[in-house]
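Posting this for the archive.
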Amino acid sequence: MRARLLNLLLFALAILELLYLIGAVRFTGLFPLVGADFRALYAAVQIAREEGFPFIYDLERHVPVQQALCQTAGSDPSCTLIPMVFPSVFLLPILPLTLLSPPIAFALWTLMNGLGIGLLLRPYWLHLPGPARRQRLALALLSFPSFSNLFWGQSTLWLMLCIHGFLQEWKHHHPFRAGLWASGLLLKPQLLGLLLPGLALARQWRILGGLLSGTAVLAGLSLILAGPHGITSWIALLSGFARPLPGIAPEVVGAETMMNWRSIGALLGRGIPPPLAWTVAGAGMLFTAGAALAMARRLDLREPMARERWTLGLTAATLVSTWHAHSHTALILLPPLASLEGHRMITTWTLQIWALLPAWVPFVNILLGALRVLPAIPGLDNLIASKILFGFNLYFTYWAIRSFFFDSSSSRSQAIVPQDQRENTASQKGIIP
């Protein structure tokens, strides 16, 4: 009965998300809102091809190119500028897409992202019966982070791939290669904020070496492509993102709609003195990051699923502690979360609520607005969904910390048992299927 209800909820959610996407394209056009982040990528690649990589961060050059993209898609030509802030090397795989028309390129980009999420997660649930496996894949694909990633045309799939590769290489005892995969997180450098010191505290020197080597190569290639002028422009653009950007749809992508302590400070600052609000937010950042790094020191690779727990906790702590983290970035939690759920270390209920609760927010908001229970508030669904994900990030951080700090007695007893024997014992106890 519960499985049938869940299937019904997933089917209804799939229909509603499809209608939401079609409606957004119908009423706002393709690139002003839907695919806005892809528009910035496409524009940057066009500028790189026509004028050179040093100019991909030049906002004055972006304005006419992005306006033209909105017009070619039949959209309102007054679409708002979206800066492109990725290191230049990450534009290379997107170069072929600019040989296609913008709408077709976006459709292909969306298809690649949707299939990529499913293909990356499928191995974590291969041991499950077909219906259960398909149900979990549907949960992942219809979750709010997945949908918002597809809606905006974001590049979070690359980050998810890097986390997946990092975990797989670490699991198979290839630490340097694991670090090379982790270096791909340079796409959004703030995601390395806790990983670098965390690996050092955990004394994972070979992983850290691979990460630093990969980062050096990617940074070097970006410097070669963009040159000193481009790198200077990129740094200036990143520093600008540290401040509010009221011209870039603040009700949709402003600090308030992030899933981090910064968003809490921005919201509290509207009702209490700003110094007090930012003291609360700053204390939250420091405590969350400090607790996650303290956990990193207790890493015991001889424990079953220790790497996945460590990665989930540290990544979740990064998302709430960093200065910039929108809801679609939570997609990077899915590889460790799927692995832990597949091995029954985290309950299926946790995955279900994480996927469904934020995903239904936009449609409940629409229903309440239609019934005149709530006034039309721009960005309310993003605001609420992001705060739900903020709470989950804190929970995942706590869960990982608790397992490392408060399960130490069981960890010590497991430490003298060979890993394969421990996993067989865990399987018999129902911890690992």
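The radius of gyration is 22 Å. Confidence is low (pLDDT under 50) at residues 245-251, 408-433.
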